[in-house]
C-alpha cells in the first residue's frame, strides 16, 4: 500500500486525542522515525508548545530564533542536524490558518522526496486536528502558555480562525493581550462569490464585554446566513443588541462585503474600528460616513457605502486599543505611527502583519501591561476571480445558493 495512504488511514482511524500517537507509530514503522512531536502555536504567537497528555508540563519553544519557529513563520520546512540524524520542522496549516509545526527526526540517509512526503503528512494532520478540536481539548490546551481569563476564553472560541487564504485574498488577525482580551473581535466568511468581514469593538470590560461581543457577532452571523444584504445585517444586529440592553451598551463595528468577481466592496461603518489601505506603496486612512454604533437606539437605519479594491491592495483594520497605546513619554500611538507600521510591514504576508504591529506596540509600552485590548486584521487583495461570478450574475442565471 502507498505509504501516504497508509498513514492517512491511521490518522482517520484513531480517536481525536490519539492523532499524534497514531502518526508517531506510523512514521516509526514506515520511515524509521526516532522522534515525532506536534508543536502548537500559542495564542500570542510568540512560542510553540508540545502536545502532551498533561498540559503546561513541557518547556515551550520560542518562535524567534529557532528552526521550529522559522518553519512556522516562513511556512516552509526547516532542517537541523541532531545526534539521531536530521530533524525536520514542517508547518501544520489548513487553508492558510497556521496551527503549529510537526517535528520529525529521521536517519541521515534520506532523499528529498521523503521530506516532501512528510510535508503531505503535516498537511493531513492539520485537517485532522482542525476537526478534532470539536471533540477534545487536547490541542486547545497545548496552545496555552497560561490560563485564559473567562472573557478571553469566550472571545477565542468565537473567532473563525487566525488566518484564511484563497486565490482572491489572504488575511490574518490577532488579538492582544491574548490571554485577557475583552470586547474586540473579528469574523469572516467566504462563499463562492462573496467575502464578508466584520470588525467588532464591544464596550466594557471582562465577561460582560465578551457577552456583548458574542451577542453582536452571532446576531450578524444569523443575519448573514439568512442571505440578507449587508445594511440589513447591521440593522438586525442593532435590534438584537438594543432589545437586550435598551441602549445602555453598544458595539462599534465595521462591516465589509467583497465581491470576489469584481473587487467591489460594500461597507457599513457603525462607529467603527478604523481601516487603512496600502496601495502602490502609499498608506492612507479610508474614511467612511460614521454611523451609530450597533444597539444605540431602537430601529436605527444603516446605509451602504461602496469602494473598489484593486489587485495588490492591502487593507489593515485596527481597533481603538491600538491607538490608545502610549509611548514612554505619554505620547499616543496615533495615525502617523500606524501608517509607518503598515508601510514597514509591506513585504510580510498578511497573516504575519498583525503580530508584527502588535510586537511594535509591546516595545512601545516597554514591557508595561496594555490598558485596553487591541485588534489588528490584515487583508491582501490579489485580484478578482471572474470564475467566482458576482452575486447579481448568479441570481440572474438562477444559480443562487440553496
UniProtKB/TrEMBL annotation:
GO terms for molecular function: phosphatase activity. It comes from the Bacteria. Gene3D superfamilies: PPM-type phosphatase domain (3.60.40.10). Keywords: Hydrolase. Residues 166-381 form the PPM-type phosphatase domain. Transmembrane segments: none annotated. It holds the Pfam family SpoIIE. The keyword Aminoacyl-tRNA synthetase does not apply. SUPFAM superfamilies: PP2C-like (SSF81606). The keyword Transferase does not apply. Signal peptide: none annotated. This is Phosphatase.
Amino acid at each position: 500500500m502507498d505509504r501516504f495512504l497508509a498513514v492517512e488511514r491511521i490518522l482517520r482511524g484513531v480517536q481525536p486525542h490519539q492523532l499524534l500517537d497514531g502518526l508517531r507509530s506510523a512514521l516509526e514503522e514506515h520511515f524509521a522515525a526516532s522522534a515525532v512531536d506536534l508543536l502548537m502555536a500559542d495564542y500570542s504567537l510568540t512560542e510553540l508548545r508540545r502536545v502532551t497528555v498533561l498540559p503546561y508540563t513541557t518547556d515551550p519553544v520560542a518562535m524567534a530564533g529557532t528552526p521550529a519557529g522559522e518553519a512556522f513563520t516562513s511556512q516552509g520546512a526547516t532542517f537541523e542536524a541532531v545526534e539521531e540524524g536530521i530533524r525536520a520542522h514542517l508547518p501544520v496549516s489548513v487553508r492558510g490558518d497556521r496551527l503549529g509545526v510537526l517535528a520529525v527526526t529521521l536517519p541521515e540517509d534520506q532523499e528529498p522526496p521523503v521530506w516532501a512526503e512528510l510535508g503531505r503528512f503535516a498537511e493531513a494532520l492539520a485537517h485532522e486536528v482542525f476537526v478534532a478540536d470539536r471533540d477534545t481539548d487536547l490541542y486547545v490546551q497545548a496552545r496555552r502558555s497560561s490560563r485564559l481569563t473567562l472573557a478571553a476564553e469566550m472571545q477565542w472560541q468565537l473567532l473563525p480562525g487566525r488566518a484564511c487564504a484563497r486565490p482572491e485574498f489572504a488575511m490574518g488577525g490577532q488579538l492582544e493581550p491574548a490571554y485577557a482580551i475583552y470586547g474586540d473581535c473579528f469574523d469572516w466568511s467566504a462563499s463562492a462569490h462573496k467575502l464578508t468581514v466584520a470588525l467588532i469593538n464591544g464596550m466594557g470590560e471582562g465577561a460582560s464585554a465578551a457577552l456583548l461581543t458574542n451577542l453582536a457577532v452571532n446576531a450578524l452571523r444569523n443575519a448573514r446566513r439568512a442571505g440578507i444584504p449587508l445594511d440589513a445585517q447591521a440593522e438586525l444586529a442593532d435590534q438584537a443588541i438594543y432589545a437586550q440592553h435598551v441602549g445602555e451598551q453598544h458595539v462599534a463595528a465595521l462591516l465589509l462585503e467583497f465581491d470576489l468577481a469584481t473587487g467591489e466592496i460594500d461597507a457599513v461603518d457603525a462607529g467603527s474600528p478604523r481601516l487603512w489601505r496600502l496601495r502602490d506603496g502609499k498608506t492612507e486612512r479610508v474614511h467612511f460616513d460614521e454611523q451609530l454604533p450597533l444597539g444605540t437606539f431602537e430601529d436605527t437605519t444603516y446605509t451602504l457605502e461602496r469602494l473598489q479594491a484593486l489587485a495588490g491592495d492591502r487593507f489593515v483594520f485596527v481597533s481603538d486599543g491600538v491607538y490608545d497605546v502610549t509611548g514612554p513619554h505619554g505620547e499616543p500611538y496615533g495615525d502617523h505611527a500606524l501608517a509607518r507600521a503598515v508601510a514597514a510591514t509591506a513585504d510580510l504576508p498578511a497573516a504575519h502583519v498583525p503580530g508584527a504591529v502588535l510586537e511594535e506596540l509591546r516595545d512601545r509600552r516597554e514591557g508595561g501591561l496594555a490598558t485596553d485590548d487591541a485588534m489588528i486584521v490584515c487583508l491582501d487583495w490579489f485580484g478578482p476571480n471572474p470564475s467566482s461570478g458576482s452575486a447579481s450574475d448568479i441570481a440572474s442565471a438562477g444559480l443562487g445558493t440553496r
